[in-house]
Structure prediction request, 423 residues.
Amino acid sequence: MRGRRHFLRRLGQTALGLSLGTLVQETAGAVPLPDPDADFWEVVRAQYPVTQERVYLNTGGLGPAPYPVLDAVQRTMMELQRISETGHDRLEDARAPVAAFFGARLEEIAFMRNATEGNSTVAMGLDLRRGDEVIFEAHAHPGGFFPWLARQKSHGLVVKLFEPDPTSAEGNLQRIEDLITPRTRVIQVSHVTAPTGIRFPVPEIAALAHDHDCWFHVDGAQSAGMLPVDLHALGCDSYATSGHKWLGAPHGTGVLYVRQDRIDAVRPTETGAYAGDGAVKLPDQFGYGATARRFEPGTRDAASVVGVAAATAFLDRIGMERIAARGRHLATYLQDGLRALGGLTMLTPELPSLAASITTFKPQRVPFDDLYRFLADQGLRCRIVRERGIDAVRVSTHLFNSEAECDRVIDATRQALDSLSLR
Ligand SMILES: Cc1ncc(COP(=O)(O)O)c(C=O)c1O
Prediction:
C-alpha cells in the first residue's frame, strides 16, 4: 500500500516537470502490480499524455501511446540523428521482443507502416488465378478488403462475403463453410470486427481453412493489444495489425506475421535493398532472404519500430490477460448502463466468447448521427459507424479508460435520447 502511494506521489511530481516516461521506466518494474482496482488503473491512466479535456473512446480508430513509448521513440530518434545512422541494428533488436509478444518466431515478423500494408502484402502477394475464390466477412474494414477487390478487378478473383453471426461461433463457422467450393483458395477474417466488435473463433476457422487447403489470413487491427494474441496457437498462416490502435505504438506502425514455412508462398510486391539473401549480384544473381524481413525493403524509421517494442513491453508489464479483462469489464459496465436506458439496440455480441472491448449501439427513435454529435459536443470522442448501413455509435474501452468515463457516456446518451426525441 505504502509502495503504491509512494509511486502515485512520484507520478504526481512529474506534473512539476520531471520526465514521466523515465520515471515509469525506473519505477514500474520495481512496483508490485496490485490486483485490478481503482488505484492501479489510475496509475495506468497517468502514463498516457492523451488529454483529459475530452474522453477518448476511439482506440479502435487510433490508440494513444503512453509516455514510455513516446520516450523511447524520441530518445532513439535523437540518438540516431546525432550520429546520423539508420539504426538497422535497433530494428533487429526490436524484432525478438515483438515476436515473443505475439507468440511467434522473430523470422516470422515484418515491421509495416500500418495494418493495411500487412494485409495488402499478403493479399497482393499470394499466387492466385482467375476464378480463384476468397471468402471474408461483410464487415471487413477497407484496410482488409481493398486489395481483394483490386485483385478481383485486375486478376479475376472471385470475392465471396459472409454476414457475421453475432450470436454464435458455430454460426460463423457454418456461414464460412457454406461458401467453400473447390475453387476457394483464401479465407480471411478480422480477429475482432471493426464496426461492432465481433470476435471470431480464429483457431476453429484455421482448422476449417486448412481442411480445405486454403490460406488463412487474419486482420488483427482490432485485436493486438486488446486481447492476448498467440499466433502459433491461433493457427493462421498470416496476421497483420496496426501498431497505432490497441497496442499504443507510434502512428504509422504495424506488424505482419507470416508462418515460417509459408513465407515463400507470398511474393513480395515491393522489393529492394535488405530484402535479398545477401548473395545478390548484377546482372542475374538474386534470391530473397529466408525471413519475413524480405517484406520490408529499404531504409525504415527505426525509432517508430523501437516504439512498437516499447509498446509491447509496456502492455506486457501490465499483462495482456489483465488488460483484456479490464477492457471487457468496462464494455460490460457500459453496455449494462446503456441497456437500462431503453430505446437503444445493442449490436455488439452478448456472448462473452464472441465479445471484446468494443460496444456498438444505435438509438431506436433518434438519428444515430445526431446521437454521435451530441456525445461529441459533450467531449466524448466515440466513432460513428456508417459501414453497411449499420448506422450506429462505437465506443472502445481500453486500459486507460474508466467506469467514470463510461458513466459519462451513459448519462449523455440518456440526455440525448430525452432531448433529441422531443425535436
Ligand atoms: C479491421 C481493420 N483492418 C484494418 C484497418 C486499417 O488500419 P491501418 O490504418 O493501420 O491500416 C482498420 C482500422 O480501423 C481495421 O479496423
